[in-house]
Amino acid sequence: MELIWFTQKNILRVYPKGTRITSTNFKPLRAWMHGVQMVAFNMQVRVYMGDGWRKDFSQAHFDKYSPPDFYTKLYMVGVPADVRKVRTREIIDDWIPIWNQEFSFPLTVPELALLKIVVREHDAGKDDFAGQTCFPVSELKPGIRVVRLRDKKGKKFKSVKLLMRFTLE
User: How many other C-beta atoms lie within 10 A of the C-beta of residue 158?
Assistant: First the structure.
């Protein structure tokens, strides 16, 4: 009752505990039922697979004698509490990498958060750029999506894309 009385005259924000390491989602409904006005949430990103590099790049663009070794980096950019970077595992010698990995980003201020996605190809020296994109989290729609990637200048590749699933809770 004290919480309900407090939220009638004050703005209250709640968010998932910063030490949460599981991918379970924070349940905002309980806080809303008690009058909390701002409830942060977890954004989960599953990177299923990528495709199209074989069409947009030459066979020897990444590696002269073998198929590429792709991995994806996901960056959450926003207020300092929301900043995070994760990386998929490397898929060795495959033009169509299948990662099937899920990541969770607890967000305190989702309206200021951006999700940056960069695909790279691992090399013995410097890793090669293989595509990028960036989205405001507020514009992401839940569900399975085809995410078109862009080159270093921001131009969309004709064929390069990722298959991803977004869950916002």
Answer: 10
